[in-house]
Amino acid sequence: MSRFTLSAIVLGLGLAIGSALALPVSAQAPSEAAETALWDSVKDSRDPAEIQTYLDKFPNGIFAPLARIRLRNLKGGGSAAPGSSAGTQPQQQSTTASALTSESIIREVQDRLYNLNYQIATRNGRMNDQTREAIRQWQSNIKQPVTGDVSVAQLATLRRAQLPTTWGALAYYSKGASATVWNRPTREIAEREALAACRKNAGAPCQVLSVANKICGALGFYNAVISGRQHWGAYASVRPTLGQATDHALSECRKQSKQPNACGVRVTVCADGSHQR
């Protein structure tokens, strides 16, 4: 095993991520209300032109997947009277039909999850394992069925989620170099600035974790000579409070390092700067 205890870094970060993600949901935006009103007015229509009117106005809308299903049924002769079971099928599917029907919607989901502080390294409109894992974590946090897919109803919930407006980041290198920033307006800005400063200190690429609103992070670290060989490791944690983040980072260091007594807290950060108080 390398002297770099990178597995511990990943574990410490992985255990920490979920705590920062349960965010409040805002009221429905006016544009969403207009979309819902239009969909309600055409969803039971037997005229394909009326369904197409909705799709023309909201091609990537909340109900677009259902509209396309309804349109296919109507054009294929599979329509039914509004009150029949076939006519109500799209409504029944609204809670389960996948909303991930285009690259633009997948990219939107990736962007929103990233800005809710889920681990999304690549946001290109293509599904991958990391995106599905982020979806699962989000579904678990909002107490929805954990499927790794996003239904039409869940997409509406995700679109209403209130995004953080205060961000911080902690960038670190396994040999101990680190950098922190706080009170930044976006996650992307916070991570970019912290990574640039850490790389300058370390002379090598760094890892980064981000914190939002009042969430805090801490970095446990040890450096020791054992049997004539140098050992070191960094253990990052994100938790709701500074005390919890510090305790967890230190605990992970002591649990996984080769010399627990050498562990200490290297650096801390809270998104709102409260770690300075």
Descriptive report:
- There is one protein chain.
- The chain has 277 residues and is an alpha+beta fold.
- Helices cover 42% and strands 17% of the residues.
- It is built from ten helices and six strands; from the N terminus they run ααααααααββαβββαβ.
- It has helices at 6-17, 30-42, 48-57, 64-75, 89-93, 103-114, 129-141, 152-160, 187-202, 242-256; strands spanning 167-172, 178-184, 207-212, 216-226, 229-239, 264-270.
- A three-stranded antiparallel β-sheet has the order 2-1-3.
- The chain is elongated, with a radius of gyration of 24 Å.
- The two termini are 40 Å apart.
- The model is unreliable at 1-29 and 78-88 (pLDDT under 50).
Structure at a glance:
The chain is of the alpha+beta class and 277 residues long. Helix content is 42%, strand content 17%. It is elongated and about 80 Å long.
Topology:
Elements: H1 6-17, H2 30-42, H3 48-57, H4 64-75, H5 89-93, H6 103-114, H7 129-141, H8 152-160, E1 167-172, E2 178-184, H9 187-202, E3 207-212, E4 216-226, E5 229-239, H10 242-256, E6 264-270
Antiparallel strand pairs: 1-2, 1-3, 4-5, 4-6
Helix pairs in contact: 3-4
Distance between the termini: 40 Å
Count of helices?
10
Strand content: 15-25%
Mean pLDDT: 82
Name the structural class. Answer: alpha+beta
